[in-house]
Amino acid sequence: MAPEYIHCHIDSGERVSLCSLELDPRVIDLFERHGIIEAEGEMIRVVEVLRIKKVLRLKKFFGVNLAGAAIIVDLLERLEKMQEEIERLQGGR
Fold it and tell me: 79 Cβ partners below 8 Å, 6+ apart?
């Protein structure tokens, strides 16, 4: 049986305050300097917050370094978009 994919759509434009994330500002700065996320002043898009969480999870649970975690997250996001496009082309089957 094929795996079921659960899609969670969020408003990609929705923003939250950086100080509400309860993360060390140095982490945000590091991620921003390495191009993993893009903060906009004191605000950050929700999709960027999700990227931070994925990267931190990969580092914590799998021991992946920052660069490797960023690449993995990028590839996972690309795969997700491709899966959505395949489903769209197949008529939502």
Answer: none
Q: What is the mean pLDDT of residues 58-85?
A: 95
Angle, vertex CA 71, rays to CA 69 and CA 75, nearest 5: 115
**C-alpha to C-alpha distance for 16 and 66, rounded to whole angstroms:** 23
1 domain-assigned: no
pTM: 0.76
Residue 26 lies in a domain: yes
Do 70 and 34 form a contact (C-beta atoms < 8 A)? Answer: yes
Calculate mean pLDDT across residues 21-47. Answer: 90
Cβ neighbours for 40, distance < 8 A, ≥ 6 positions apart:
15
DSSP assignment letter at 17: E
Task: Quote the domain boundaries for residue 29.
Answer: 15-89
